[in-house]
């Protein structure tokens, strides 16, 4: 992992926890509206699905932080650059592996 300082890890944990709380609130509000029979647009359902998927990614990232594997690419095992982690703290793949997965290489 490229992030060697505890300060970086603490900051990233804070970013992930903040995003986790936001997503949990959004998902809860959407599910409460569904349960109340509120009329929903297709766009609302798509947003809920995106929020649930992102929440899962954030939860996984926090688990990797706890396990000590945060910042290691799930594809090649190399360190994910700090700049990528700062931009997308829940990311699991380095840019090269992500591009390969998306068929961009």
Overall pLDDT score: 90
Number of H/I helices: 4
Strand content: under 5%
Structural classification: mainly alpha
Low-confidence stretches: none
Total DSSP E strands: 0
State the share of residues found in helices, binned by percent. Answer: 55-70%
Task: State the end-to-end distance.
Answer: 24 Å
- Overall geometry: flat
How would you describe the oligomerization state of the chains in this entry?
single chain
Topology:
Blueprint lengths: L5 H30 L6 H26 L14 H6 L7 H7 L4
Helix pairs in contact: 1-2
Question: How would you portray this structure in words?
Answer:
- With about 100 residues, the chain is mostly helical.
- It contains 4 helices and no strands.
- It has helices at about 5-35, 40-65, 80-85, 95-100.
- The model has no long low-confidence stretch (mean pLDDT about 90).
What structural keywords apply?
105 residues, flat
Structure at a glance:
The protein has helices spanning 6-35, 42-67, 82-87, 95-101. With 105 residues, the chain is mainly alpha-helical.
